[in-house]
Design a protein that fits this description.
407 residues, alpha/beta, Rossmann fold, 8-stranded mixed sheet, 5-stranded parallel sheet, globular
Length: 407
């Protein structure tokens, strides 16, 4: 049986020449057994008439905000709750910008805000518009909030230019929908995850920290959520929004993160230690701002508690996944950490060669476990997170099969 038989797909169509492809997508979705409702922006009607989508889907097409409210069986909030997946294809640059800003000045934008289900966008625009820094920033923000970004493809465009910006073909979007709606590899699993840096205070205004942005950890939280897990995220100080549906616990110091993890770990099946936890704290934080002088100053540093080792050492411990950010001898140090801390998986990356790690939107990982390993090629952090979560799901399931009494 195909994974989308009887699934409910809400398809949003914005203004763009790629709207004609959306008609073919509706046809393919219906043929595959899905129930499809279509919502159009006013600009989309300039390219394809609503009657086309109505004929292909077998349902009325929603265009104006009050169209839904006039339908006693399906108001605009109920329409958002009705679907299993919401896809905006094509998603114009204008629409993406309004999504980021939280606009709700048409029915489709309102539904994006109201949806509790996964929301995907398939960007389609001129290649120069796609390359603009504003578009890049908007897509990054949407991904950080858990929105799925599918595409765009590259090739010849309607304007005659060639480059990235073409909407993915209907067959590829159908495949993405089928993959998304398959039962998640972590369905019902309790995942506890740490992300971001920690800060160890020197005085009320200064602290010791590191360059972690938290993007990898937050991407993992979103990927685990989409894989069906119940996710608790213990986060150090970052300027990111947690994906909707994640239980967020904010902390500052390594000690606070340790305490939060140890309180939550008893209910966890998988623990992922992605945070860049400070290795040392200052012995005796000053209660007032230290004044600058011409004299040298020394700080006495004490080691912080190793959170990952503490979790792994529990009598009834979860499946443990660690991270290793290295500047050299990646495999050597990662395998040593895997063994010393008795981990099930360790994901290691080089942070000194510019290919990923701190303060970037991309990453690549070398993943190791006892007796095996796997490479995840350089890609956006959300894509790397998806691949790692899939791998964790496979290894976790295998561990349960080998020893059903654990976790």
């Amino acid at each position: 049986m195909q994974p989308i038989i009887k699934k409910k797909i809400l398809l949003g169509v914005t203004g763009g020449i790629a709207a004609y492809k959306s008609a073919e997508l509706v046809r393919q979705l219906v043929k595959a057994g899905a129930e499809v409702r279509v919502v159009m922006t006013p600009a989309a009607r300039e390219f394809v008439q609503p009657l086309t989508y109505q004929a292909l889907s077998g349902h009325r097409v929603y265009v104006d905000l009050f169209d839904a409210q006039a339908d006693s069986a399906m108001d605009h909030i109920e329409l958002a709750r009705w679907c299993d997946l919401m896809l905006v294809a094509p998603a114009s640059a204008d629409f993406l910008g309004k999504m980021v800003a939280g606009y709700a000045d048409n029915l489709l934008l309102t539904l994006c805000l109201a949806s509790r289900q996964p929301v995907a966008v398939a960007p389609a625009m001129n290649q120069q518009m796609f390359a603009n820094a504003a578009t890049t920033a908007n897509l990054e923000q949407l991904q950080a909030r858990g929105v799925l970004v599918w595409g765009p493809d590259a090739g010849e465009q309607a304007c005659g230019e060639v480059g990235p910006g073409r909407m993915l073909e209907p067959a590829q979007l159908l495949a993405n929908i089928e993959t998304q709606l398959q039962p998640g590899k972590l369905q019902g699993v309790e995942v506890l995850l740490t992300a971001g840096p920690t800060r160890e205070a020197i005085d009320p205004v200064r602290y010791i920290s590191n360059r972690s942005s938290g993007k990898m950890g937050y991407a993992l939280a979103g990927a685990a959520l989409r894989a069906g897990a119940n996710v608790t995220l213990v986060s150090g100080p970052v300027s990111l929004s947690a994906p909707s549906g994640v239980k967020l616990l904010r902390v500052v110091s390594a000690g606070q993160m340790h305490d939060a993890v140890m309180r939550a770990v008893a209910n966890s099946d998988i623990f992922i230690g992605c945070a860049a936890v400070s290795d040392y704290r200052v012995d005796g934080e000053a209660d007032h701002k230290l004044k600058k002088s011409t004299q040298a100053m020394s700080l006495q540093l004490l080691p912080t508690t190793d959170i990952l080792a503490a979790v792994s050492a529990l009598d009834k411990r979860p499946f443990c996944v660690g991270f290793a950010a290295e500047t050299r001898d990646l495999e050597k140090y990662a395998l040593a950490k895997l063994q010393q801390k008795n981990l099930d998986i360790i994901a290691a990356n080089l942070v000194a060669d510019g290919s990923g790690g701190f303060e970037t939107d991309f990453n690549r990982l070398e993943v190791f476990w006892p007796g095996g390993g796997h490479s995840i090629a350089q890609a956006s952090k959300p894509e790397v997170a998806k691949q790692l979560i899939d791998l964790i799901g496979e290894r976790y399931t295998g561990a349960l099969s080998d020893n059903p009494s654990t976790t």
